[in-house]
Amino acid sequence: MWRLLATLFALALAASACGSSDSSDDSSASGSSSDAEETEVTLAANGESLLDTVKSRGTLNCGVSGSAVAFSELQADGSMAGFDADYCRVVAAAILGDANKVNFVSLTAAERFTAVQTGDVDLLMRNTTWTQSRDSEVGMDFGPTTYYDGQQLMGRESDGFSGSSQVSDVGGSVICTSAGTTTEKNIADAAAEAGVSIELQTFEDFDTVTNNFISGACDIITTDGSALVGRKAKQQPDGENWVIFPATPISKEPLGPLVRHGDNDWGDIARWTLNALITAEELGVTSANMAEMAAGTNNPEINRLLGTEGNLGEMLGLDAEWAKRAIMVGGNYGEVFESNIGSATIIGLARGLNSQWTNGGLIYSPPFR
Q1: Last residue within a domain, chosen from 210, 230, 251
Q2: Are residues 103 and 157 in the same domain?
Q3: Coil, strand or helix: which one is 275?
Q4: Does 229 have pLDDT greater than 80?
Q5: What are the φ and ψ backbone dihedral angles of 61, each rounded to 5 degrees?
Q6: pLDDT digit string, tens, across residues 19-31
């Protein structure tokens, strides 16, 4: 009975999200409710949880951008690289024992929520901001924040913009961004608050946005600051200087994984797999010392994390070494950060707010006990 009630509740949420046109966030959630019903009914009929389904299938379907520099970027050889892509691999390793058992599904902003609702992807890890409407009306369950970001703007130095420019300096500009994102409303709100008029143009994907900026069709582009840094690093033409402003972002953009609302067991796996990487960094567990740590330590929390004590894996429907496998994919949270988007990479992002809470940042995991 509880499975039937959960199914009906999930269907009601999906239906209400598809009918909403109240904001740009929700407009991107529209899709086929009949597809969602078919997926839910199929799962209910065979009695499988999503965890059972993924295990039976033998692969994790993970939704990503595919064009987000250093976060999820399709390579020439067909592989997917980046910070978000590695998180998909981490979950696959925890559940399936193999980080390579991931089917990456590239999604636009407009497609992403429908793909979760209909079951086309098991997990979405696509630079998606955690907002109240997405959590409630659209019917998404978010995991812990993987990257604390904020929206900024990027213009040309030759057009008079600098790192000290403000939104009040963009009056009369053509500003471009992706359709179906939080950035549309954020920049409209910021311009209104600053008392300036802008022409806002939106496109299906950020590749098109950036290409229009390069061609001169857009005076300014806007999205999360980390994405602007990536585009500047890879696409700034010789002889130009693109500048990112204002120094203080115009919004809060907590990015992280999300799953369909209602499957609490699956949500727990997505949530605690990330927490395992965060806790590993806090406790000094790394890819280099894993063998030593996994043999047993004097720290009970490390032992519980790595499965040498307790039964935390069993509580998730996984085995004792799920977190150990997750950490071994690319190391702890700090190692994954540095190898993909840190100071030595093409975009060179500082940890900042994404430092551990013990170092003045916001990265924090509940305890493993």
Answers
A1: 251
A2: no
A3: helix
A4: yes
A5: -90, 110
A6: 333 333 333 333 3
Strands 174-178 and 220-224: parallel
Record the tokens describing residue 360, joined without a space.
């003045």
In a shared domain, residues 220 and 361: no
H or E stretch at 212: helix 206-215
Cβ pair 219, 175 in contact under 8 A = yes
180 falls in which pLDDT band (50, 70, 90)? confident
End position of a domain, from candidates 251, 282, 304: 251
Instruction: Tell me how far apart the alpha carbons of residues 165 and 222 are, in angstroms, rounded to a whole number.
Output: 14
d(CA 315, CA 319): 9
Model pLDDT, residue 204:
87
* Co-location of 156 and 131 in the same domain: no
- Amino acid type, 175: I
> Token pair 């369909």 is at which residue?
260
Q: What is the mean pLDDT of residues 212-236?
A: 97
Taking alpha carbons only, the member of 88, 57, 25 closest to residue 256 is: 88
**Domain total in the chain:** 2
Same domain, yes or no, for 299 and 265? yes
Q: Pick the residue with more confidence: 336 or 12? A: 336
Buried b (16+ CB within 10 A) or exposed e, 282-318: bbebbeeebeebbeebeeebbbbbbbbebebbeebbb
Query: Model pTM?
Result: 0.85
Domain that holds residue 226: 151-251
Long-range contacts formed by 295-302: CB under 8 A, 24+ apart? 300/369, 301/367, 301/368, 301/369
Residue 194's pLDDT band (boundaries 50, 70, 90)?
Answer: very high
Strands 123-124 and 80-81: unpaired
DSSP states of 24-52: HHHHTT---HHHHHHHHHHHHHHT--HHH
Q: Checking DSSP bridges between strand 151-156 and strand 242-245, what pairing results, if any?
A: antiparallel
Residues with Cβ within 8 Å of residue 202, at least 6 apart in sequence: 176, 177, 178, 179, 180, 184
Tokens of 170: 């963009």
Sequence-separated contacts (24+) of 191-198 with Cβ below 8 Å: 191/167, 193/167, 194/166, 194/167, 194/168, 195/168, 196/167, 196/168, 196/170, 196/171, 196/172, 197/171, 197/172, 198/170, 198/171, 198/172, 198/173, 198/174
CATH number, domain containing residue 315: 3.40.190.10
